Amino acid sequence: MGEAALTYNTTGSNNTAVGVWAGPNTGALGGTIAIGYTATATITNRAVIGTVANNNLTGGYGAWQNLSDGRFKRQVQENVPGLAFITKLRPVTYTLDARAVDTFLGIAQRMDTLSDRSAKARYDQRLAEVSAETQTGLIARVGAGRPGALAERFPGGVTLSWAVRSYHRV
User: Fold this and answer.
1) Exposed (0-12), middle (13-18) or buried (19+): which is 59, by Cβ within 10 Å?
2) How far is CA 25 from CA 9, 105, 133, 138, in A?
3) Which of 7, 59, 63, 103 sits a CA distance of 20 to 30 A from 169?
4) How many folded domains does the chain comprise?
5) 72 found inside a domain
């Protein structure tokens, strides 16, 4: 539902899109849900709400639906060297290159095909606004200080992975 929703869906199946230019970024994905202006699912069985351009809303870019409640956890063991893992993280402030994120997700390429210059201008303006916002987050210390993903093996074969997570200043 929405102008150009599911445009790139050619052979995929069981996809849902609500919003202008919402949908999977390639034609063969299945089981995707994309809700919001230019929301883009990038892999099969992914649900996406919003984009980097509307990152201050519930959903959208970043982790937002992680349930962590002791009432639902079973076989809990305190065998994780948590402080050792935490010290490998680097607290930072940064600005997000919203255009680069949208290019990576395939959204920018779709927006470049818009014939509505006013809609394209609004999109470009919103990307500029998001890119100017100072955000806070954590970056994993990997190798010689290079930021990236961090995976740590703990007893029992458990692997804890961490990538950049961001939280907005209020």
Assistant:
1) middle
2) 8, 7, 26, 28
3) 103
4) 1
5) no
Among 102, 95, 9, which residue's Cα sits nearest to residue 53?
A: 102
Residue 2 CA to residue 17 CA, distance in Å, equals: 8
In angstroms, rounded to a whole number, what is the distance separating the alpha carbons of residues 90 and 139? 5
Q: How far is CA 42 from the centre of its chain?
A: 10
Q: Copy the structure tokens of residue 138.
A: 């954590």
pLDDT in tens, 74-129: 888 887 777 777 777 778 888 889 888 888 888 888 888 888 888 888 889 988 98
- Look up tokens 């996809």; give the residue: 15
> In this structure, is residue 155 part of a structural domain?
yes
The secondary structure of 17-68 as a DSSP string is EESTT-EESSTT--S-EEESTT-EE-STT-EEES-GGGTTSSSSSS------
Whether 105 maps to a domain, the answer reads: no
Question: In terms of residue numbers, what domain contains 154?
Answer: 81-96+134-170
Contacts 24+ apart (CB under 8 A), 45-51: 51/102, 51/105, 51/107
How far is the C-alpha of 29 from the C-alpha of 15, rounded, in Å?
8
Q: pTM higher than 0.70, yes or no? A: no
